[in-house]
Amino acid sequence: MAEFDATPVKAALVEAGQEVEAFLGQALKGRHIPCELLTAMEYSLMAGGKRLRPVLCLTTSALFGLDQHDVMPFASALEFIHTYSLIHDDLPAMDDDDLRRGKPSNHKKFGEARAILAGDGLLTEAFTLMASVAGTIPAERIAPAIGEVAVAAGAAGMVGGQDLDMAYTGRDNVSLEDLRYMHSLKTGALITVSCVSGALLAGASPEEVERIRAYGKAIGAAFQIVDDILDEIGDEATLGKPVGSDQEQGKVTYPSLLGLDTSRELASKEVDTALEQLAPFSGPHADFLRGLAQYIIHRAW
Amino acid sequence: MAEFDATPVKAALVEAGQEVEAFLGQALKGRHIPCELLTAMEYSLMAGGKRLRPVLCLTTSALFGLDQHDVMPFASALEFIHTYSLIHDDLPAMDDDDLRRGKPSNHKKFGEARAILAGDGLLTEAFTLMASVAGTIPAERIAPAIGEVAVAAGAAGMVGGQDLDMAYTGRDNVSLEDLRYMHSLKTGALITVSCVSGALLAGASPEEVERIRAYGKAIGAAFQIVDDILDEIGDEATLGKPVGSDQEQGKVTYPSLLGLDTSRELASKEVDTALEQLAPFSGPHADFLRGLAQYIIHRAW
Lengths: 301, 301
What we know:
2 copies of one chain form a homodimer.
Chain A: H1 7-27, H2 35-45, H3 52-63, H4 68-90, E1 99-100, E2 103-104, H5 106-110, H6 112-131, H7 139-153, H8 158-168, H9 176-201, H10 206-233, H11 236-239, H12 245-248, H13 254-258, H14 260-277, H15 284-298
Helix pairs in contact in A: 1-4, 1-15, 2-6, 3-4, 3-9, 3-15, 4-6, 4-9, 7-9, 8-9, 9-10, 10-14, 14-15
């Protein structure tokens, strides 16, 4: 990893993230949402973060020639879904986390009932945003893209992964295979579909979509391994939550199963796979996707 | 109301509901959903009910010439959304209801964490189902229909209505206008969009869609007034929950604001409005919609 200079990709990610941020900041304005509920939704939506999922969608759609302005509502919907999942995961009945990104979690701030509804609202509004690209993007591409996102976010994807995570917590017989499968649903599916949906909306060929899917799966896996490593070695300021919280909650992690060095090797292999899948593609968007793959694991070194 | 014979419309509703039931029973088969989560989702999905929302969608789409088989996945998605809303509304942090349709509510049976996830899963799978009609229904109609459903189900619709309901509970200064607005979001929006989405998918003209929307709004309003009346006068077996539970929870209702007689008059006026909107339409599907409007309030007499 010594040879990777993270500075340019980090700058490009910040820049792309700021455009997403600007869209998110006005996405719910003018809608007739009860004021207190809107406040709770925007509290979590605007709590920062790198906006990785929208940036991935924007970048893969640009790779296949789509105007980023046209894709922005759909791309931003992925951040709505990510945010809702964080709010529900933090609930007392789930991970019972009081802090998120260094601030009180949604239910600590607004109470449990409103936090559940803020999550429900963000999830549903995501589909309003996705459907809103009708008119700017060819109609026959939209429903398949929405369908892929719904599968990835749903009970056979992210929601299913959270269910498995809860079931595995406190158990001492979780295998590496179990862990990988759980994370492929819980975090991998949404990261993967962020890449895939951009390609679908841009009219990429089935072969191209499958390469982008494999790229997304690989960086999704790398992302989670790095997250587990950071939970063990990171500092609280970067994480926005206490270091070692996984262990405290009785969660199995990659480092707890494999140790830090083997976990890093595994993440590195996933990034190699991601880069191989991008081999046929050139230009600034492909280079950015390559840089993002390397940047994801860079934090864990 | 004396002259209305509910028998034929009730029989037609039961028959249509059984077709929905058959679809719902196999809708999640073969999907890679973790088994315990799937069990919790199907527990509530298959707990009975008249399947009114899918039947409305199927009937308005048939009114404008669409094959019911083609619309079934989309129509059934409305029952997924309705079911998720019941699971989340019953949670301890919300209405804290132990019973639903005479059986333990989802969280009483499966625990709070899994009930939250079962709701999240059903909501998200609804959009998988809606997107799945691509290929059988013209592409340009699908995203607008999905968008309408998402708005109706979301923070400016059903979720917002539940938030207002929570905020109003225990307050003694809720006006009739407040109550109507809250219910127009909480129950009205999904009933309305059940009608509207069927018309949109069938390619109805904007004028036709607006008539169907006005019909849906009127029966949605009538439906809620009747629900409030039944909570006061109904028997526990029909309701599947204790009579008088609204009052016990400190909820304002139509009878508590207006008395029973005026509440019935109000419901009756809504049904008149619904019937007026259907005046230009003829044939068995229009007749069924007329019958449904009358059937809804028939229960409260």
